[in-house]
């Protein structure tokens, strides 16, 4: 039965209440992916890294095709993987400006009228972490490809994200009312200076008209891929807290964080926890990005500084599990999460494989490593591996593959040609 926008808002927020209650009891160990299998090692660089993938998803041979009936949601225990000997260098996909303004003392907050938290309601099935339903969605820069809305109608994805081009999202809501919609406007500088509360209010006010003209958007992101580091994370947390409150004053909800792949470190994320608390109070979510290269399993099974190795976490993909298992779940802060960009990003340094940017640049490598017969199959199989993992985590609402409708510089990331096959994959996971 279609869910109205108001109903979806009310229904969604009960998820936060139930997740919070669930977090107050003893948490069972996080389900892990199924026993590790090493992919074929066909290059000197790849011999330094062990890739772990579900046994039901062993990369097919040269003559194989995708089997849509495979059990991608198998939840059997995962065995330990070998420790990668390569340490990824993790720059943000959006380059950080080289000039960093001199940090000024953070002024005290200026009290303003409080916002009203958004209330709850019963939880619809699409927000309950059904392991039998795919959590794969798409990131869209411009709705300039008819295959985008065809994908929406056929797949009815868990989540979709629009950047700057928001008009088509009303049609998304009409065609797939249970799809969670995230929006973000591109914004210029990200300077950690001045009063963070005042800066957050100015940020929202500068974009408020666009927000109000696009009520189909469920959650609005703020800065794109910030990397404040340890010295500026407290400032950024206060900025995000006030952005949440300012949006709530207008009946809007926030996706906080927006962190790039490979950041922040654990001690940095701990300083962001106040923003998590405020977001939960006002019906918000956490968003972040997860990429790897030359395939999505690079870095999976590796540890973060000061922590032991876990087979079901990584420094790039499944990095979010570190934040939840070590910091959020023990505090009862099981905030819903959307990985609002995911896929292949070749700017990651100190990695195996050829030079390249998006998934299209690594097709031959992925085929040689046994991920599929063709480049399309190889990338879809990697996305299915990632989908199988996030479906084990009830707090993950979905992830969006970067990107459909790209502008010129994002050509190697373009998933337009894959959308019919991705729709088939999502439907067959029901």
Q: Mind explaining what this structure looks like?
A:
- The chain is built from 11 helices and 8 strands.
- The chain has an 8-stranded parallel beta barrel with strand order 1-2-3-4-5-6-7-8, surrounded by 4 helices.
- 30% of the residues lie in helices and 11% in strands.
- Helix 2 (146-155) runs parallel beside helix 11 (419-427) and helix 5 (229-248) runs parallel beside helix 7 (273-281).
- Strand 6 (285-292), helix 8 (320-328) and strand 7 (337-344) form a beta-alpha-beta unit.
- With 430 residues, the protein is α/β, with parallel strands linked by helices.
What is the gist of this entry?
The chain has 430 residues and is α/β, with parallel strands linked by helices. The protein is built from eleven helices and eight strands. Strand 4, helix 5 and strand 5 form a beta-alpha-beta unit.
């Amino acid at each position: 039965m279609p869910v109205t926008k108001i109903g979806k808002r009310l229904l969604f927020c009960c998820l936060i209440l139930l997740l919070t209650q669930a977090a107050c009891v003893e948490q069972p160990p996080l389900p892990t992916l199924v026993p590790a299998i090493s992919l074929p090692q066909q290059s000197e660089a790849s011999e330094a890294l062990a890739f772990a993938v579900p046994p039901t998803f062993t990369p097919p041979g040269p003559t194989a095709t995708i089997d849509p009936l495979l059990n991608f949601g198998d939840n059997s225990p995962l065995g330990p993987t070998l420790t990668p000997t390569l340490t990824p260098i993790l720059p943000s996909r959006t380059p950080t400006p080289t000039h960093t303004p001199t940090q000024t003392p953070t002024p005290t907050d200026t009290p303003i009228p409080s916002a009203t938290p958004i209330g709850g309601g019963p939880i619809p099935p699409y927000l309950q972490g059904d392991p039998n339903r795919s959590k794969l969605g798409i990131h869209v820069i411009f709705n300039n490809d008819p295959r985008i809305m065809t994908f929406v109608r056929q797949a009815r994805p868990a989540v979709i994200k629009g950047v700057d081009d928001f008009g088509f999202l009303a049609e998304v809501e009409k065609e797939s009312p249970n799809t969670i919609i995230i929006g973000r406007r591109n914004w210029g500088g990200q300077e950690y200076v001045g009063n963070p509360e005042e800066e957050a209010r100015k940020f929202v006010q500068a974009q408020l008209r666009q927000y109000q003209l696009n009520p189909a958007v469920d959650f609005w992101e703020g800065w794109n891929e910030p990397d404040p580091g340890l010295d500026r994370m407290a400032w950024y947390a206060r900025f995000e807290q006030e952005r949440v409150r300012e949006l709530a004053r207008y009946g809007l909800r926030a996706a906080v964080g927006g962190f790039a792949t490979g950041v922040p470190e654990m001690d940095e994320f701990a300083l962001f926890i106040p923003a998590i608390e405020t977001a939960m109070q006002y019906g918000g979510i956490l968003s972040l990005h997860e990429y790897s290269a030359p395939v999505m399993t690079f870095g999976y099974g590796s540890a973060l500084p000061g922590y032991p190795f876990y087979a079901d976490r990584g420094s790039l993909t499944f990095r979010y599990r570190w934040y939840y298992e070590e910091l959020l779940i023990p505090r009862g802060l099981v905030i819903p999460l959307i990985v609002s960009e995911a896929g292949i990003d070749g700017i990651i340094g100190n990695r195996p494989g050829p030079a390249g940017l998006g998934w299209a640049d690594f097709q031959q490598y992925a085929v040689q490593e046994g991920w599929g017969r063709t480049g399309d199959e190889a990338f879809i199989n990697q996305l299915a591996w990632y989908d199988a993992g996030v479906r084990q985590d009830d707090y993950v609402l979905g992830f969006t593959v970067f990107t459909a409708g790209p502008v010129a510089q994002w050509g190697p990331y373009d998933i337009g040609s894959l959308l019919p096959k991705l729709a088939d994959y999502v439907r067959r996971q029901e």
